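Field guide to reading this record: the first block holds the primary sequence, the second block holds the structure written as discrete tokens, and the final block holds curator observations. Each block starts with its own label. This record concerns DUF985 domain-containing protein, catalogued under organism Herbaspirillum frisingense GSF30.

BLOCK 1 — SEQUENCE
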Amino acid sequence: MSRHRFEELISHLDLQPHPEGGFYRETHRSQERVERSAGGSPRSAATAIYYLLGGEDRSTWHRIDSEEMWHFYEGDPLHVHVLQPHGALQTFRLGNPLEHDGADFQALVPAGAWFAAECTVQDGHSLMGCTVAPGFEFDAFEIAQAELLLEDWPLHQELINRLARK
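BLOCK 2 — STRUCTURE
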């Protein structure tokens, strides 16, 4: 990736820094409101964002209380790591399957799962979209502390520490 293309995407799409890392802009917030089975205030039925990671960026370990579908748009493949119950790890390779071996255009992160993402090419970039249903709210967004994740996923210490907030 050229630094020029990365900056061009940030400018053209009007992206802003995201608290988890990378850059984003909300592109849709449904006017329809839904009640959550877990209670709490009604929220938008769905939200969508553009999300951009450069090769050095990462989406640090975090979780939300809704399902999140990642959609690949452009650039290099991305790994989305999802910590599963009972110490397991699932890694999705998000990318263009016609150009990137083992990649899929979409990856679904279950509600409540801890997850993180990283580009697979150091000087590359990945542009994607993320759709959340019920819709994303920052008050339902939590960034993980590596020490707490390591209690349940000690076999993945290197990955957890590498993608943890510094």
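BLOCK 3 — OBSERVATIONS
The helical segments are 3-12, 146-152, 157-163.
The radius of gyration is 16 Å.
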